Amino acid sequence: MPTQQPMVLVALETSDDVARELERRFGADYRVVVAAGETDAAARLADAAAAGQAVALVLGDSADPRLYVETRRLHPDARRGFVLAWGDWARAETSDTVLALMAANHIDYYVVRPRFSPDESFNRAITDFLRDHQRATGAGGSDVTSIEGDADRARRHGLVTALPDGSVDLAIVGAGPGGLAAAVYAASEGLDTLVLERRSVGGQAGSSSLIRNYLGFSRGVSGAELAERAYQQAWVFGARFAVTREAVGVAEVDGGFVLEVAPQLPEGQGELVSAGAVVLATGVSYRRLALPGLDPYLGISVFYGVSATEARAQTGRVVYVVGGGNSAGQAAVFLSRHAGHVHILVRKSGLAETMSDYLVERIAMSPRITLHPFSEVTGVFGETNLQEVEWIDDRTRETTRIACGSLFVMIGAEPNTDWLRTCLPLDEKGFVLTGRDAEGKALESPYATSRDGIYAVGDVRAGSVKRVAAGVGEGSIVIQAVHRYLDRNA
Ligand SMILES: Cc1cc2nc3c(=O)[nH]c(=O)nc-3n(C[C@H](O)[C@H](O)[C@H](O)COP(=O)(O)OP(=O)(O)OC[C@H]3O[C@@H](n4cnc5c(N)ncnc54)[C@H](O)[C@@H]3O)c2cc1C
Fold first, then answer.
1. pLDDT, tens digit, 9 for 90 and up, residues 462-478
2. How far apart are the first and last CA of the chain?
3. Mutate which of 105, 144, 204 to test ligand 1's pocket (most atoms within 8 Å of Cβ)?
4. How far is the CA of 58 from the centre of ligand 1 (A)?
5. DSSP letter at 151?
6. If pLDDT is split at 50, 70 and 90, which confidence band does 358 have?
7. Do 179 and 197 form a contact (C-beta atoms < 8 A)?
8. Cβ atoms of residues 478 and 445 within 8 Å
9. 45 CB contacts (<8 Å, ≥6 apart)?
């Protein structure tokens, strides 16, 4: 009879101290299994998979990635930790091993051996792994980022979908990092704050499986967890949220603003919210590649952006970039510093129409980048990691299926501003213009729009840096300008 307790597998050269501490703290809820070497560990993983038993965590200390690869293949939700001794990170050989295993996504993080008992640093690191596993399996309670615009589901998660009675000091539109930061700062500084969100809390960041570059989270943080923490933080300061509610219009009325909110089906009509000031944090929607079978590779070997970590992880690999705009060009050039070779797939005849000249030249001159015009991706193949990509040549209708380490999809992003076109100046791509009036004169805040009392932060703002930290920074700073505006209009 298979036990319901998930397994923690210890596959170390010396395992006594680690196994003892694990058993002591986690033994009641997890089955701690010590493997006698890597072959035994692989057999234990296979036995567990055959018996339908969950593996929550595998701890290894080998630079050879085979055990971690096997773990990922048989137990995709299991976390993989590399165990090292206290101070060992200072040795170049160990740090190179850990960085290489992490860059190749063979391990999730490292953990330092317990030095005494109880060692709470060790236990906390293990708890983090186990919590990540629980989250990955969908266990572990409510997740405010998962409601995806479904009002019933939102209410079941204890979220509010109704609009408040009366007016608020500040209405924030969008609960991505920018909107959440604005909500935390506004509510903590005494403003009666309402956040309207049409889908789920977290925005684009909420869909990111691991944000590696956000300050203070050395092992990375899932976008869902970051969003949930920020939501709770804003809530305890008193910010109110109305999720699954989309702002569809804004008008100036009696020195304040009235936001029109889309109907909440099936209950009925659209509703109105009155606010003294408005912060727009509606972000962008990345164009997704509509390709069957792509989603399981997201964040593993299919990416909608290139961070330095992802670029380094491509060392020596053959990678593909889809897209012909500047973001695709920059990604290709950046990736070519690390990757063995970069292929760019574009549907048009070339890059000249869509990419800046300097990038077109750099791509043409690089022996490590090959451009494939008239090409469209038609398939992706592999087990847990992407192994092959298939594309079709639109002229000849010939298909090519070839090895591919990672696929970077850079086919553009559109700001969520259709509803603002008639009331705010936008740039030619639809991003909200801030910081200067129509004559080019500086406004009182870099986040002010030319409509006094309406501000924009994060990805939706023309010229913004499209990053979590940038959205958070802007959302925090804008509140000072909101206070000044509200004081002037009091
Ligand atoms: C897959 C992925 C991975 C990423 N990884 C990283 C990373 O590792 N590091 C990093 O720094 N950045 C990363 N980014 C970029 C980062 O997520 C964004 O820069 C950041 O989320 C922008 O925050 P924002 O608040 O401006 O907008 P968004 O996150 O886009 O949030 C906007 C919110 O507004 C809502 N909204 C839109 N219109 C309306 C409306 N009319 N009414 C009500 N609500 C509305 C949307 O539903 C959304 O929830 C990643 C992006 C993606 C897509």
1. 999 988 999 999 999 99
2. 70
3. 204
4. 33
5. H
6. confident
7. yes
8. yes
9. 9, 55, 58, 70, 71, 74, 75
